[in-house]
Design goal:
InterPro entries: LL-DAP_aminotransferase, Orn/Lys/Arg_deCO2ase_major_dom, Prn/Lys/Arg_de-COase_C_sf, PyrdxlP-dep_Trfase, PyrdxlP-dep_Trfase_major. Its cofactor is pyridoxal 5'-phosphate. It comes from Bradyrhizobium pachyrhizi. There is one protein chain. By secondary structure, this protein is of the alpha/beta class. Helix content is 44%, strand content 12%. Among the domains are: 48 residues, no CATH class; 246 residues, 3-Layer(aba) Sandwich (Aspartate Aminotransferase, domain 2), CATH 3.40.640.10; 163 residues, Aspartate Aminotransferase, domain 1 (Alpha-Beta Complex), CATH 3.90.1150; 108 residues, Molybdopterin biosynthesis moea protein, domain 2 (Alpha-Beta Complex), CATH 3.90.105.10. It has a seven-stranded mixed β-sheet with strand order 6-15-14-13-11-7-8, sandwiched between helices. A five-stranded parallel β-sheet has the order 2-1-3-4-5, with helices on both faces. Helix 17 runs parallel beside helix 18 and helix 20 crosses helix 21. The N terminus and C terminus are likely disordered.
């Protein structure tokens, strides 16, 4: 029976519905076909097919012919064929078998009789597996001619091609944009002139955004305009323009720099095909890894100090052969301490490591990239040492990773600590408000010390997922001091480069946007307009409240970004990259090299370097889809935990509204899963809000289930084989990444449901007393939480050259005070002497770093005066791991006599407390 009901029109601009959403749609179609085939109502199948067919136009597989076959079977009322064909397509998509097996493209249930019409017989006949991708063709050719166009493209493919691709055709700008957003398999785009602007499908959110961009008339849909739009959302794509006009003029247009190559009409269609393959090959090539594979297959005589090379000492041994069997022969064949013979030097690369780093710079949007093989701790210390010297002042997030603090010690720089907003209820800090950073700069200016402030050093995103508005921070700070250096520790955020939503919040993404803004003549006008409005001598309070615009003519853009590649990409542990976009790099290149010599190992691991090379390849070719999947998995976890009737009774994942105070969410954004939220409202938040929340980082509150973070983390690991990240007093951090699958989500949800059920049953069996004990435990974890201590101030002995409005200090001097055993003393934490000295003096001055885990940041640094709030916090801590503190000995302090020997304290020096 025909379905007369008119299905709701499918939207094409649902960009938060990623690869998993598409798979769900196909599973729903198969289920509806099964029901129909068993005699059920076919209405659900027709509605599902109609909705699914809209966005399937943006994918190479199943393609026009298979989708037409599905529609024909439905129109004919053939439930059996509909079920069989839908099942085959869904299975091919799930297993990705269509990328290698020509039979999956057939409209027939058995055999490949019609395959030559769909795909050339070269698919599946190559001896080696060939990677598959899709190429988007944007054209003004009528849709009735598309099957012939597809056939012509397929005829170009040859068995000798290193890759195989399927063309996807669209006829307008909106569909081209949606295809690039919804189809992660697209690796190249061919843009012909003459296409339309509007899609025939529903796209109200997209239409509002394009209208705001000035895309309102059909004449606005130019090939070059589309190229710029696509390059902005997916910079890794190779773009090709085809024009039947004056291609020489177009090719010479500076605006065409986003295009890989310009072609005239279709006269060189084979050249275009080869160019597409060459472009993908350029991203596929991994200079170091490729050479390492060749090296491993050569007969090498090793007479250097690396006995494990070639594996003879391992595989000939009766005692350690099991290690060789575990890791495999290639690991040892590829080991060497040589830097010649096809290999290269990490310290001074001139060959394939240099080429690999150049490719990484392209991938990250940087001018240059350094590979680092002993973690981002080393990347941070390299940058700090290279860019700062003794006496330089750096504005530093007090809650940053300890490598930054130690970097200041090594450089002799003076940290001016600024505080993040506290999240006391969850025993964690957020990020540093921009007003706090600006106030520190303005105070330094008032003190006549702004020339000594060289760097802003911040963590983006934080451990718990707080993301800065990097562009706004840099622009407003550059308005106060135009030559500031910015060091953004993005250890946990490297993947964000490959998300069109999150990229703008990365250091390199923001730096590229600022650089483009500086070239726009409107930037000077905007600056001069604001200066006229502010007047000659605006007060600090006015400057603090104003969104400052820097002078684009004065800016010296100097941005550094460190990434723990191993934390969010497919690199081996300790693999890190340091990205640079610094117009003044030539002035610091020599000292940067010295910093590399200081910290980098002279014996780097070859496999680790290769993994950095390969991780770049993967992210350039499939990172967009992998990150979209990681975000989709995070949304699934958030939604399931917070809506499941049983789980949500004891656990919840905190949304953006709980993690980011309202005053920092100027757009009014509350959460990714809030009713009415779509990609446009999320985009407004990402563009405008002072802080955003990384959706892949989920704070799971477990205190409401009676578990502290440490014990719950242990329970998940020991009993359920689930590993999570950091903990707080009453939460654990769950992170989705490019490695996760929907099965991982199911496992986590199943475990949380099991634990929730056990709590339910325990409370039911235990009666009133069990409920009282449980409620007391929850109250202790969720309400009786210690206040978080701010940084107090450096002791005057370490502030001999400090200003009166700034609180920087000589952390290096404080650090080395601990080397004088006679000048240090120990007092136990609960000794009454602590309380007496807090009340009556003399000051308690820390001789070292004290770092409890959690929260994982220094609550004391060398030379810091210890306050009551710090002692109260330590006394309430119930964590076992506190670096720099031995409970048996007590706090390590600099003695009063040692402080006196360092010089008399200045009477006028104030006691600072950082602004909240």
């Amino acid at each position: 029976m025909a379905n007369d009901a008119k299905p709701a029109q499918q939207r094409i601009d649902q960009f938060f519905s990623g690869p998993g959403g598409r798979a769900d749609n196909w599973r729903d179609l198969v289920e509806a076909a099964k029901v129909w085939n068993r005699g059920g109502n076919r209405a659900a199948y027709d509605a599902a097919l109609t909705a699914l067919a809209v966005t399937e136009e943006f994918h190479g597989y199943p393609g026009l012919r298979l989708m037409a076959a599905l529609k024909e079977a439905a129109a004919a009322g053939d439930a059996a064929t509909s079920h069989v064909l839908a099942t085959r397509i869904a299975q091919a998509l799930q297993t990705k078998s269509f990328r290698q097996h020509a039979g999956d493209w057939s409209t027939q249930d058995e055999g490949n009789g019609d395959v030559p019409d769909l795909l050339p017989p070269t698919l599946g006949q190559s001896a080696a597996r060939r990677p598959y991708f899709e190429t988007l063709i944007v054209t003004g050719v009528p849709a009735s001619n598309w099957p012939g166009l597809l056939s012509e493209w397929r005829k170009l493919r040859r068995p000798v091609d290193a890759f195989i691709y399927e063309p996807v055709v669209v006829g307008n700008l909106e569909d081209a944009f949606c295809a690039a957003m919804l189809n992660p398999n697209i690796a190249a785009v061919v843009i012909n002139e003459g296409f339309a602007l509007r899609s025939r499908h529903d796209a109200p959110v997209l239409r509002a955004m394009t209208g705001a961009m000035g895309l309102n008339e059909e004449s606005d849909a130019s090939a070059l305009r589309l190229a710029h739009i696509l390059k902005r959302v997916r910079p890794e794509l190779d773009l090709y323009l085809m024009s039947n006009r004056d291609v020489e003029e177009l090719a010479g247009n500076p605006e065409a720099d986003v295009v890989r190559r310009v072609f005239y009409s279709v006269e060189d269609i084979l050249e275009l095909h080869l160019s597409i393959l060459e472009g993908v090959q350029d991203r596929f090539d991994t200079p170091f890894f490729d050479n390492l594979k060749k090296y491993a297959q050569r007969p090498i005589g090793t007479f250097h100090a690396l006995p494990i090379a070639r594996g003879k000492s391992v595989f000939k041994s009766d005692w350690i052969r099991d290690m060789g069997e575990f890791y495999g022969l290639n690991l040892f064949l590829a080991e060497s301490s040589a830097t010649t013979g096809g290999l290269d030097s990490m310290l001074e690369p001139t060959g394939n490591i240099k080429k690999a780093q150049e490719k990484a710079a392209r991938a990250l949007g940087a001018d240059r990239v350094y590979f680092v093989t002993n973690g981002t701790s080393t990347s941070n210390k390299m940058a700090v040492q290279a860019l700062l010297g003794p006496g330089d002042i750096a504005i530093v997030d007090r809650n940053c990773h300890k490598s930054h603090h130690y970097g200041m010690v090594l450089a002799g720089a003076q940290p001016l600590y600024v505080e993040a907003f506290p999240m006391t209820e969850y025993s964690m800090y957020g990020a540093v408000p921009l007003q706090t950073i600006k106030r520190a700069l303005l105070n330094a200016k008032a003190d006549g010390r702004l020339d000594r402030v060289k760097m802003i050093d911040l963590t983006n995103c934080t451990f718990d997922g707080h993301i800065y508005n990097t562009r706004r921070v840099m622009e407003e700070c550059l308005a106060i001091k135009p030559d500031l250096i910015f060091l953004w520790d993005e250890a946990w955020f490297g993947f964000a480069r490959f998300s069109p939503f999150l990229r703008r919040r990365t250091a390199m993404g923001a730096a590229n946007e600022i650089e483009a803004w500086m070239r726009d003549p409107k930037s000077v006008a905007a600056y001069e307009k604001q200066q006229a409005e502010l007047g000659k001598n605006p007060s600090d309070e006015v400057l603090l409240k104003t969104r400052l615009i820097p002078d684009p003519r004065q800016i010296r853009l100097r941005v550094y970004q460190t990434n723990s590649t191993h934390k969010s990409m497919s690199a081996i542990r300790q693999g890190s990259m340091l990205a640079v976009k610094d117009i003044e790099f030539h002035t610091v290149e020599a000292q940067f090299k010295e910093a590399v010599f200081t910290h980098a190992s002279t014996s780097p691991n070859q496999q680790l370097i290769a993994s950095l090379d390969v991780s770049r390849r993967q992210m350039e070719l499939e990172g967009y889809g992998l990150v979209a999947n990681a975000m989709e998995i995070a949304f699934a976890i958030r939604n399931t935990v917070n809506t499941n009737p049983l789980i949500s009774r004891y656990f919840r994942v905190l949304g953006a509204d709980a993690m980011v105070p309202k005053e920092y969410r100027q757009s009014g954004f509350t959460d990714y899963l809030a009713a009415g939220t779509n990609w446009a409202s999320a985009l407004r938040s990402l563009n405008d809000d002072e802080f955003c929340l990384d959706p892949t980082r989920m704070t799971l509150v477990c205190g409401t289930a009676g578990y502290d973070g440490t014990s719950f983390k242990g329970l998940l690991a020991s009993r359920y084989n689930i590993q999570v990240n950091k903990t707080s007093r009453n939460s654990v951090l769950i992170q989705s990444n490019i490695n996760n699958t929907r099965s991982d989500v199911a496992h986590l949800v199943r475990v949380l449901a099991e634990i929730s059920g056990e709590i339910d049953r325990g409370l039911a069996k235990g009666g009133a007393n069990a409920r009282v004990d449980f409620d007391m435990r929850v109250k202790s974890l969720m309400k009786d939480v210690p206040d978080l201590p701010n940084f107090s101030h450096f002791h005057d002995a370490y502030r001999s050259d400090a200003g009166t409005k700034t609180n920087e200090g000589d952390i290096r001097g404080g650090f080395y005070s601990a080397y004088d055993a006679a000048g240090c003393e120990y007092i136990r934490l609960h000794d009454p002497e602590i309380d007496r000295r807090l009340k009556n003096g003399p000051d308690l001055v820390s001789a070292n770093f004290v770092i409890p885990y959690p929260p994982g940041f220094p609550i004391m640094v060398p030379g810091q005066v210890i306050t009551q709030e710090t002692i109260d916090f330590m006394r309430k801590l119930d964590v076992k791991e506190i670096h720099g503190y031995d409970a048996a000995e007590g706090l390590k302090l600099v003695t009063t006599e040692a402080l006196a020997r360092m010089g008399k304290p200045r009477a006028a020096a104030p006691k600072f407390k950082a602004a909240s």
